[in-house]
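ok so i was messing around last nite and threw this chain in just to see what happens. nothing serious, just curious
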Amino acid sequence: MIEKEYYWYGIAITVYLLSCWFFSIMRAFHTCQKSKEHRKYIWPDRKLQVIIYLMSVCLIPYAVDPTSPAAWLLVKCYFPATYYFYCGVLLFMFFGSVKQWNKWKTISWITAILVIIAVIPLVINAWIPGGVLSGKGMVRHEQIVLAVSLLTIPFCAMSMWKVWNCIVEARDENYSNPDDFPLAYAKRVWLSPVFLSLFIWPAFLTDSPRVMAWMCLPLSVFNIALLINVMPVWRQVVLLSDTEGPESEAESRERILMEERIDQIAQKIEEFLKEKQGYLDPHLKMDHVVEYCGTNRTYVSLTFKERFGGFFNYVNQLRLEHYEQYLKQHKNTTKDIAAQESGYSSYQAYYKASQRLQKNTDKHLQD
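result:
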């Protein structure tokens, strides 16, 4: 018969397992039709999240018998062995078709193989009655888990760094379409591996089932909080506009007013950047355009996105056109001077901008 204290250990891990399975079920089935038709617009990857959270099923032996040494070894090693990989691969999914996730598949698979090598023997040992690992084998495998966990930390850190770069780019209006990256969601989750480190190591380091029981509670809450944040992440402008019913008269009037306001701001933008050649200022910022338009940054940013393909794209299109025209009119000039006369600090700055603009154009054509 299971002792009373161990009974609560089993309850704690069961709560954690239920939160994982609830997460998987909701992510598997709670998807609108438009999301299914435009799967690349769903952030982060839905199927991958479902698979990762279903992996917790291997911890069932500990929920059934918390007194089993083999089951305890599995559950205490599971979190440090897998969580950095889970966090890293899910964060890498931010790259999708926009950020070329395919570039990172190789390193992700290598990391996955390391995690499998660390976890599979523990799963077999816990699920087969009597186990397959000796006392020395169990101690040795703890060392393997520790080594694998430390090796997955750089993988996770790299993914955090990549997502942070995306956050900076999106914050600085450097995307042709800001909807390509869920900025608000990214800000909420990119540091989650650091937060989770506080809960995945204590039980392993202390070898304490009681500590594990207390760990399971915040991890369960984290699963539900992540689910709440994940559900509305897909691009609402692209997907939801077609899923709603007929718009009401008030909504129609509001939409018309919004279009009129965008038209007015677009005229101001063209007046400032094109007619007055505001693009020739090499230190031009969005704030300068906002000040000229006499409205708030949100409306100006939206207008750039809707009418001009983004602030960076439009300004540099004008600069590149000016550069080409300047070279035709001044055949004896240097490329560096032409670049400086076109709003760039140097030819190198011109070259970087042209390359980036070409990438944005190619990406748009691929989408």
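not much to say yet. DSSP finds 19 helices and no strands in the chain.
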